[in-house]
Fold this sequence. Notes:
By secondary structure, this protein is of the alpha+beta class. The protein folds into 3 domains: 3-77 and 261-340 and 611-640, D-Maltodextrin-Binding Protein, domain 2 (3-Layer(aba) Sandwich), CATH 3.40.190; 88-236, Dipeptide-binding Protein, Domain 1 (Dipeptide-binding Protein, domain 1); 347-525 and 600-604, Dipeptide-binding Protein, Domain 3 (Dipeptide-binding Protein, domain 3, Roll), CATH 3.10.105.10. Helices cover 22% and strands 20% of the residues. It has 16 helices and 25 strands. Strands 1, 12, 13, 14, 15, 16, 17, 20, 21, 22 and 23 form an 11-stranded mixed beta sheet that branches. A hairpin with a 4-residue loop joins strand 10 and strand 11. The two termini are 33 Å apart. The model is unreliable at 1-38 (pLDDT under 50).
Amino acid sequence: MSCRMLYRLSIGLVIVFLLTACEAGAIPTALPAAATATQTAAPPRILVVCLGEEPESLYPYAKLSASAREILAAVYDGPLDTNAYGYQPVILEKLPSLDDGDAVIESVSMYIGDEIVDADDNPVTLAAGVRVHPSGCRSEACAVTYSGIGEIQMDQLVANFSLLPELTWSDGTPLTAEDSVYSFNLAADAETPGSKYLIERTQSYEAVDELTVQWWGKPGYIDSTYFVNFWTPYPQHSWGEFSAAELPTVDIAAQTPLGWGAYVIEEWVSGNSIRLVRNPRYFRSNEEMPYYDELVFRFTPDPDTALSLLLSGACDALAPSVSLEEHAGLLLAAEAQGILQMEVAGTLTLESLDFGIRPAEYDDGFSLLAGDRPDFFGDPRTRQAVALCLDRQQVVDTVLFGLAEVADSFLPAEHPFYNDQLTGHAYNAPAGSALLEQVGWHDQDGEASTPRLARNVTGVVDGTPLELDYWTVGTPQRRQVSEILAASLAGCGIKVNLQYFNYEDFYAPAPQGVLFGRQFELAEVAMGSEGAEPPCTWHSSREIPDGQNQWSGTNLSGYDDPAYDAACRSAQTAMREEEAYAENLRLVQAMLSDDLPVVPLFWRIKVAAARPGLCNFVLDPTAASDLWNIERYADDASCGE
């Protein structure tokens, strides 16, 4: 019997079989060769972490997989950590601050021909007719149009970053500010993949001395997270002889990148594992870190096999890249019996149900006579009613074993800028049905099993049934979620036609693609952000996919509200420590809660597991890598208690 078939049995029986029968299957047990213990020396302490996939590359400027980021957490430590929705310096003395004086906003004189950032956040050359924010101005209300004559005063943001002294690369070469400047120039190279957004808004990035880097934003660019505008150092002495185009294929960058962290890559056995050894020059060595002499990352794409390896002792931990979410019930039961420890954390990936408020066919104006789709969602009360008729808590309890959080905003409830005064739309079918009646969607036959019919609904022909197409990808979890939500909507007289797509078709390029081409009525999607910053721009009008932006953007519903755009922009141009930042973020959350261009469903979770006794094995929602503190992992029998 295979390990996968065992999951059809009860959880208790599964655990028993995993502990006994599964180990007899075709489970690889050989590890890469480690140092042999002698009679006089203690054997090396080895930590084995199973990953869900083998990375294609470890080159930091490549498009890194989750497993690559997990490995690189052992090679680099920092330079910044983003934990608990905040920022912590690791190899920096501190984060720059306007209050401390290592960051300043200066008023500078700008003239025609100078490089600036205009009032719409575009890097431009100053010329007559360009709209700018003069010095002291951050909002649309005080923006002015440059006449082209003489000077204009604008604000420029400058920040200084100071490295800890005596940092070295693992080969003993001093790590200096020039390594960070090298990294900036490498990132700026046209041959290096990745976003150029911040680079295009940077005037200069220079080493002031051996340990200090100074970042200058272009005049007009006020960045609320200026204090993280530090480029991760990369080893110029090792990589400098190669061009930006060559580096992704060079072994010393893609296979064995040099770092300053707790471990050094020793061996990569393709298809099997990567072995690392303790870095003797690690700057935290005097804190007795890392605890382990060797670290082995083992590639185990199949979650069932990974669980068997954990329970047999062949793996000490399973990283979130193993994709254990669908095994949460088994893990909960195993943890209750003391067999393993389970770690669960939220993420900044939001599962949502998007309304097709303004499909692409409306871009030239809405007209039923022209054959446009009925305007099902033009009235926000209809969207609110749909939200009230969605039993999101049942989804969380049933599909996610109660481990996730029902969402009411684009921020989790524990985020420091979450608006805890939101109206919310908890499941309330009677209230949702009453709201539909107000809009003009009537239950004419008194049968909840038949869809409501329109009578005097703006943009909808009388007699049109409230029958909606619900589109998403056909993964098992999405099928479970959509079926529960379709059933709860039916209780309000909303008929849903479920249709499942493969990933490639669902996310196909626009304008033909159903999602980015804005052709859907209801679409279940997931949207994620990196770091801890609130993504209010997800729903700004500039993010509506259309021909002007090559059909790229996150505002799939077509939501367009100038007041929302202004509030979001005000949040972006305020400093994180200023009250205006929090005020505007609370405001945009309230706007979305009322207008509901999308219904937030739940925050996706990440799941990991480890043997009892592995200390400091914790996940964090906002960490750049799920193994962000791997240097602190240690053995202690009390950890499993």
